[in-house]
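Minutes, project check-in
Item: structure for the 120-residue chain
Input as provided by the requester:
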Amino acid sequence: QVQLVESGGGLVQPGGSLRLSCAASGSIFNINTMGWYRQAPGKERELVAGISRQGSTNYADSVKGRFTISTDNAKKTVRLQMNSLKPEDTAVYYCYHGERVSAFAVRDYWGQGTQVTVSS
């Protein structure tokens, strides 16, 4: 049973920092992509940052220069360093791991979500 366990969310003042971490456990091996998504109340879930097995990264325009995504050597842990946080960053953040199971298919795994609240 594959599980993604998230940690690091919480309440922070504007301009502050948080570091999210997501660790995968269970039978997951061929990790292709990892990332973080977020969803604010009444809004669609959006990609915040993604990273491939090869290390290529992709960030939402709204977080470029403020957030940094990284992984461990085994590609089973993905982290998101969030600096200069703004109130509009407030959302539930979801960890994502994509496992390649064939040349044409990727199996998606999601964390349970962790709340990030930026407020003064």
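Outcome recorded: DSSP finds no helices and eleven strands in the chain.
No further action items on this chain.
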